[in-house]
TrEMBL record:
Membrane-spanning segments: 62-79, 85-110, 122-141, 161-181, 202-224
The entry's keywords: Membrane, Transmembrane, Transmembrane helix
Name of the protein this chain belongs to: Membrane protein
The species this protein was found in: Cellulomonas persica
Entry-linked InterPro entries: Alpha/beta-hydrolase_catalytic (IPR027787), Alpha/beta-hydrolase_N_dom (IPR027788)
Amino acid sequence: MTIPIRPATSAPPARGATEPALPDPPAIGAAAPDAAVDPRPSLGRRVLAAFARWPRRLSGPGLAGALLFFAISLGPALVPRAALYQGAVAGICAAIGYGLGALLAWVVRTAGVPWSRAGSRWFRRVLLIAALVVVPAALWWNNTWQDDLLELFGEPPAQSSHPFVVLGLAVVLAVLLLQVARGLRRVTQWVGRLVRRLVGRWVPVPVTRLVAIALVAWLTVVVLDGTVVRGGLAALNGVYSTLDTGTADGVEQPDDPLRSGSPQSLAAWDELGLQGRTFVAGRRPAAHFEEVAQRTGRTEPLQDPIRVYAGLSAGDTLDEVAQVVVAELDRTRAWDRSVLAVVTATGTGWVDPSMSDSLELLWGGDTAIASMQYSYLPSWVSFVGDRSTPPAAGKALFEAVYERWSQLPQDDRPLLYVAGISLGSYGSQGAFSSVQDVVARTDGALWVGTPGFTELWRELTDDRDPGSPEITPVLDGGQTVRWANRPADGTDRQLWALGDAWERPRVVYDQHASDGVTWWSPRLVLNKPDWLSEPRGSDVLPSTRWVPIITFWQTTIDLFVAGSAPPGHGHNYHTEYADGWSAIAPPDGWDADDTAVLREVVGLVPSVA
């Protein structure tokens, strides 16, 4: 018999229960019910909410440290700064201040000092009020001291340093640095957990944390050095090597056979590089030579000066490039001139036109100047990433020239001088082991705007006579080495303040109290320098103070802006070569009045092509 299967039905409601009511069917023609609303807020609202919560996640003491460091970083420095550079200083210092404040708060919490939420809220309220007062005051202070410094430099007040740009850039940079630091902290925490899983059974937790910190620090250095720095240097080298193929406006290939790059030259015009082409094509108008000769009583005939140069592509090694320079000296018969100057160029191969012009005007063109290129990179890149090449290049060039010069009869060869500015000064001094070596193998040296990490300069400065300041040291009573400081205005006779009894050969260091290139040093982080402990230089504001960490970053940024200062200040030595060359290489009968004439003519116009 077949049993019929009944369709399954829902269980009957329990006794006393009420059957749920069914919704009424929609009326005919009524609209359909709305779709379910997504309970999550939109992406824009979530982003705004995240930004609103982000400040509350910041450390109150960290924000206090950031505010303090931001305000101090806007204080007096060596040279005026544009808004871009001032904002960079303020942003870096604010990030460091935040880190130190947060670290202090962590130490206090670890020590068990109680701190309530109510106290934290009140602290933030007070901090907000302080920021509303301190930030505008610090920006106003920044404008004030920059105008005071320009007045001290003899310049009119500049436009506002754009406080909104300074503030905006500082905040953006500080936030970026903070996020990078937080990212590193998260990586350190993850590495710490991994280390504890592996060895936590045998190693205490504090030790695993230290191991994690050490591993992340090592990895960061490796990545920065191996990827960021080296990769960045390679990329910059490619960019600047391309720029090096160009020629500056107004520069044309010389026809004069006394110049490298001419049709008769062994150094091809196309291989000299951008700065090399500018150097060999540069010359002062004939009227300038005639004026100096007439006003100083020169009786010898004027000559066309010799300029020889070799570009980086002239050889596979620095020694090969230097040999091209020597070959050019042979070709131009430079050994018959009265003066031969070996000038070490800066990073891109630049030779300061005022340095060349001053020497050539001093001797009526009876000169030869030799230089060469050793890098495509500008000085600030070499300053940070490659300090070995400049002294190697300075040594290669000088040794090659000196070897050939030494072969000539002692009474029938030119006076041999060495010179350089900035990175060129650093590179030039790399050819010598001591000042005695300089005196034994040259007739004098002129080193201008020397970087503070130069070993020979540092050694001589540290050995200065007691009581002499770091900005203008006195060494052995000025017997051989003397320092000049702002002789461009004609009132500072520092070179001759020690008397005329100055033996030859002579070594001159020209430096400004306001030149950050000279005074930059890692020691500024924690050590007050002598140049801010002793009486200030004449172009440094009395209100300039040393502050740990902050002064280091202020001076670091000054490396990029020091060259924009007016002549006689910062890293601008335009008219001071006249005093330097007149001191170490004066023609017979040359006196102080003649130096004033030379300084005046050098200051008229720059070298022309």
